[in-house]
Structures are given as C-alpha cells and as structure tokens.
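ARCHIVE CARD
SHELF: 3
SLOT: left
DATA:
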Amino acid sequence: MEQNAESSRKSLLEAARLRARERKPPARRIEPADIGGPLPLSCAQQQLWLVETMEQSGHAYHVPLGFSLRGQLDAAALRHAMQRIVERHQALRTTFRTGDELPVQCVGPAAGALGWRETVLTS
C-alpha cells in the first residue's frame, strides 16, 4: 500500500511538471545591446564608479593573475580559448569614461581585445 501511495505521488508530481511546462511561454533570446557608442552606466556600475572616484586608487578592481603550470601547455589553444571568452562577454571589454556630464560605459571591439603576454620561466 505504501508503494502505491508513493507511485501515485510521483505520478501526480510528474503530471504537474508537464502542465507547468506546457503553460510556460518559450524563452526569448537575449539580443546584445547596440554598442554603436557610449551607454549609460547600470546602477551597479554607478556604484563601482563612485567608489573608484572617491578612493582615486585606480586599482580596486584590477586583479592581476599569474599561475605556474607543469608539463606541456598548448599555448595557442589557451590563447584562443581566452580570446573567445573575451569576445563573447562584453563585460570583459567594458571601460568607464567620464562623458559630458555623467560617466558612461564603452564596450571595446571583440577582435583583438585580449592583451596577451606570455613569460616563460625555466629553472
């Protein structure tokens, strides 16, 4: 009897999930913003800009990264993968500039956006 109750419960849950999926409108594709020129800052970007302006450090959100690897590295494949990530994500190419009155965000071009410097250290 306990098995039948559990089986009925699972059937009811599955039926509810199917009905919910049928009623759900199809997901809309998010189109990239038109970046023909400077764009206004989002609320979060305004906060970052304000903190950076007040502190005037210029380094609060710059995190240099270095790591060491052992074994063979396909540097061309790594460089290509990193370039594709930077091309795909506008946030990685976005800088803030002070416009006429308010700060704006400027999205750099995707092509050649990755500044790549490779240093080989051998012992």
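SLOT: right
DATA:
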Amino acid sequence: MRDHGGNLDQAMAVFGTGDWIDLCTGINRRPWPLPLLDPDCWRSLPTRASQAGLVAQAARAWGASDQAAGIALAGAQAAIQLMPLLRPAGRAAVLGPTYNEHAACLSQAGWDVANVSTPEALHSASLAVVVNPNKPDGRRHTPHDLLTLSRKVGFLVVDESFGDISPGLSLLPRAGQDNLLILRSFGKFYGLAGLRLGFAFGADSDIAALARMAGPWAVSGPAIEIGRQAISDTGWADAMRAQLALDAGRADDLARVAGWKIAGAQRCSVFMRRPTQKPRSTGWRATGSGAGSSPGRAACFGWACRDLSRSGTAFRRTCGPNVPTPAGPARPNGFPDGRLAGQASPRPRRCGCDRRRRSPDPQETPRESHPTGTCRADRCH
C-alpha cells in the first residue's frame, strides 16, 4: 500500500501505542450521526433506482449543472483509480504537493506524469489534476480560474474531496462539458470514511464509461441510504461548516502561540512549519522522524500529524499534571480554562472531560472527578 496516511496501526507498531490522534487523511472527527436503517438495505442488492436517487440528491445539494451526469462510487479513491482509463495515456500533470494517489494511479495506467507546483505548468497537458481546496497546503482556485485552465489542457480533473467546506469554490455548477471531470468525497466532511462513498460528475460519455468499469453495485445498500439521508441534511452541513471554521481557527491560534508558523492557507491548519525547539507544555508531542523544522502536514479539520517527506512522523497528545488538555468548549485564546497554549497551570487541575467515576450501585453518590494525569478515557484525550 502506498503511504499517504491513515495507517495508524503501522505508526503504533513503530512508536508504541497510546493516545494517538491521526488526521492525516483530513477526516472530520465530528461525524454525521448515523440513523437506524431499514433492514432491507442490508438484505437486498442495491437497485438502479436507489443509486440514481442518491446521485440526484447529491447533485441537488451541491448545485451540479442539469447537464452533468453523475455516478456514486466506493469513495473518491475509486474514481481516482478509474479516471486514468477515460483517455488514451499521454502526458499528465498534477498540481502539487497533493494527495499522491492521483500521480500513482496515472503512472500505473501508463501516463507520463509530472508533479508541478504552479497552475501555469499544467498548460498543454493531455490530462491535468487540480485538488480544490488542496491538501496539504490549503491552496484554493476560483471557478473562473479553473474554467480558464480547462481551455488550456486536454482533460481537466478537479478533485473536490474537501469541497464541502467551501461550496463557493465548486465547479459542479459548470459540470457537463466534455473535458471536465469533478470528484467529490462523502466520507471526509461527513466523518464516515469507513462507509466508502464518493461521486464523480462529468459528461455523459465519461460517466457511462466509469459506470461500465465500476460494475453494477459500485456502492452498498447501507452506503446509499446513509449517504442520501446525510446529504439531504443541509442544516447539519451548514452548522458543521461553521464549527469546523472555529475549530481550524483555534488550531491555528494554538499552533502559532506554540511557535509554529502557518505556511499555507490561514484558518485551515493544513500546512505548518515546526519550531526547532517545540514548547514542552503544549500538550502535543512529535514522535518519529522529521520532528525538526521540516514542513508538516495537518488535516483540513484539525491538528498536524505527519511529515510531508518522511513516513514516520505523527503527533501524540499526552496527559499529565501540568499539561493543558484541549477538551470542552473552545475559548478564543486557548484552552477551556482560558490559558494560552504553553502556559502551565499553577496547580494540578481536574481532567478536562470532568468524567465522574460511578459505582455500579445507582444510589451511590458519584465520587469526585479524577485529577488530570489519571484519566485514560478516549473522551478525555
């Protein structure tokens, strides 16, 4: 398997188990709440009507053009693997740094792939890939700029896997033209990556070709039902966008106070440079290689966790008597008790989760909440 994050078991095997927070893949850690499902979606094969209904729901929610055809697949990754087969192999260019599966899948399909750093370097490519918004650097491109680019390349693939956080950047309202394919992820924004659900929108001929390659049951019945309900929940999506903006802003502020430099997009926490001497009381500990001043990657939805150029770096949060724990309601300047990152508490604090240990006897009065440093509950960390 190519290394692009998400293999937390591998990191644990190298550096030990503990309270790891792995956001390499940019998956929202505040997932959409799962509903009770009709048992029939487990017992029966998905119908064409149910698949078409899911795609239509996604197209409406995301503002896709009426001229665009669409297909649901087992994650945006499935579309990335099939996309190179839509055109004869030639010269491809991928705007980076970005998700490495684009270049890898193109190369595997026989394309001559160049990883480039500017949109101008994509010009004249037979196939060009742009991730918008991009991970890890948070770079964004306006629809106007992408449409202009589409006239200068043979086939433009726009990966909008993180598009839910910035709906105004989407090219879906212009989808349907012959040389444009737009990919969307469900699992990242909705926090349900294990469901394996994604979409592709484009011209009728390209979507028909993807459908032939994907087969008759590209996504499961439960994925169809959960996806349909979640995507129709626009109130949750609006609230989550606002929440993620607050979370990302707070993460940026905490990192900045701790001596990190935001090298990418502001209020997105996707690209940082680590301080040579990281303050020890921030509550975060770098483990593995590349823990110096090399560029670091963080998920669009949270904390930095891996090095761009080396495979062994992750961040593990520790809990001790004088280590602030970022749990509970966010404060504009730091942790829940009002301190900034890097400021130690003057006395031992109670755990941020305020979890109370209870006796099996429901009549017994709850004991005092445990001190910081004694809790190992997931919610505490």
